[in-house]
Write a structure and sequence with these properties.
single chain, mainly alpha
Length: 149
Amino acid sequence: MKKFQFSLEKVLSYKQQRQDALRSEHAEILAQVHAQEALVESLWKRYREYGAEYRERCERGLPMTEVLVYQSGLRAMEREIQGETKQLEQLRERAEAKRKEVVEAKQETAAIEKLKEKKVRDYKKALEKSEEAFIEEFVSTSRVRAAAN
């Protein structure tokens, strides 16, 4: 019998490459998410430190002009934190969308791999039957020859 060939081998290869590419993209987005989370956390830390400094200086007495500067700085930090938090949420949404793509690609690949496994099993069964038929034919031919002699 001829060697086993899976007719969808090229499709399977393409699906595996696509799945690997999607996993790589997902990993990149997750790295961006972690970096953005660290940035937001550092902005919050800076905001808390600036707010503590403002309260401390207010307790000791602070001219009105410096109070306005501190308050303006705090508002600017709040806007920056809001913007970076919004960007973080967008990155998280992208990561989730990419994760869904990876899961879908994995399911597609798994389906083709299961089909390939089934075809290999069928091929092996057919090969075994063919070999059994050959052996039976050989044995019966040998018996006929032995009986003829």
